[in-house]
């Protein structure tokens, strides 16, 4: 399937035609109105509330009032809640309605109604449990780059009935121009998103979301279950922080304007509220904490590249390691969010919630480059790649991290979070994305167990295997040996994580798809890790 289409089709009808979307067990009694361009989605569930999303473009492209209906059956014979919203070009014709009065732990069907009485596709959703909960399943995604392949992970997960909630930890899309970050031979299956150039301005971001949201597997995912989603860097620009980004140049205009556009369009096109962070109680079983660690308060990442050009790089790196690297003012979340997260987690622990599950965009576990990493490169490897790995090996020998865009660049902030978690007696589960690879960490602080981290592999974005010629099993073994917190990793396969929570045990499955280069929904569990409540370590 060649995915590339013209802009008008993306904005007015979606790629595949929304009438093509069908969910298991859902029969559409009436034809879907053409004005509904990108199906439906739900998000940010509560025990009695749900946020519902759609996009409707009328023929005159003006303002329109939409109704939403939520029912207990697919034929909508018993409508239990309704809502309305006026939408138009000022919000790119997207609509979000939060309905209340729902029953906890209940599956619902929902749809939107256009002014002429025609309907959107039917979506399914499920409220969070209230009170005693014995099991809850969460599928966790990150890093879905359209040109690198098919979203088979989404399609595989969408068909599962043992999952109650989707969580997307960021890099839901990518900002680059066509060919800027894509396979050498071109986009897999012709899956080039619009616009052709890098997304910088409001219209660019809107069109890029329209491209991604037209993917059939992503539409199926959104229409099957509710999602908690937060941006990472590529929703704005690579390695973004409060005041700029690695992939924002001076000739691309003011960063504040670009950041504002990125945030606005994210909130238009995603099933999210306007709040930058939040907590979600899963009955008595767990609290999930949605965080923001990119655009609102993150300090700029440390730039260590100049240190390697110093006359004495070891001395320069050592000085950095012992000084500026530990600056307590350098923050990932900002003081306001740090305090909120501390207080919210304490309330969860005090209330007797069995698990505290925190979602971050980037890896919290400590990672350094192994000393033998240079042997992983081919003899004819790009000199820049060799220089990069040489620098990583030197830094690793000095106790410095593999990268600085993750929590490795913010050790004081990391320590504050983990000390806080230890002090309150949390049963901490951290889930994160960003790295494209799969990791399992026993987190520690001051020599004591602090929690467990399950770090997810990408939906499609390539991992270490794209740059290394060594057997991935050799790479994984060396990474585990060199990093005490790291207990397992896979640096070569794509997919998603499935986290299953029960009162006394949490199990995380790393699900690997068979392929991203062809549309194939086959997948299997490649590794599982188990945590017993009260231990804060795996096993």
Overall geometric form: globular
Mean pLDDT: 94
Strand percent estimate: 25-35%
Number of helical elements: 10
Say how many strands there are.
22
The chain-level structural class is alpha/beta
Cα end-to-end separation: 44 Å
Largest sheet: 9 strands, mixed
What's the arrangement of secondary structure elements?
Blueprint lengths: L6 H6 L23 E8 L6 E7 L7 E8 L7 E9 L6 E6 L7 E7 L9 E4 L9 E6 L10 H7 L6 E4 L33 H11 L3 H9 L1 E4 L10 E2 L2 E2 L9 H15 L8 E5 L3 E5 L22 H10 L12 H16 L4 E6 L22 H15 L13 H14 L3 E5 L5 E8 L2 E8 L16 H11 L3 E5 L4 E7 L3 E9 L9 E10 L7
Parallel strand pairs: 1-10, 8-9, 9-10, 14-15, 15-16, 16-18
Antiparallel strand pairs: 1-2, 2-5, 3-4, 3-6, 6-7, 8-20, 11-12, 13-14, 17-18, 17-19, 20-21, 21-22
Q: Mind explaining what this structure looks like?
A:
It is a single chain. The protein has helices at 7-12, 152-158, 202-212, 216-224, 255-269, 313-322, 335-350, 383-397, 411-424, 472-482; strands at 36-43, 50-56, 64-71, 79-87, 94-99, 107-113, 123-126, 136-141, 165-168, 226-229, 240-241, 244-245, 278-282, 286-290, 355-360, 428-432, 438-445, 448-455, 486-490, 495-501, 505-513, 523-532. The protein has 539 residues and is of the alpha/beta class. Helix 2 (152-158) packs parallel to helix 4 (216-224), helix 3 runs parallel beside helix 5 and helix 7 (335-350) runs parallel beside helix 9.
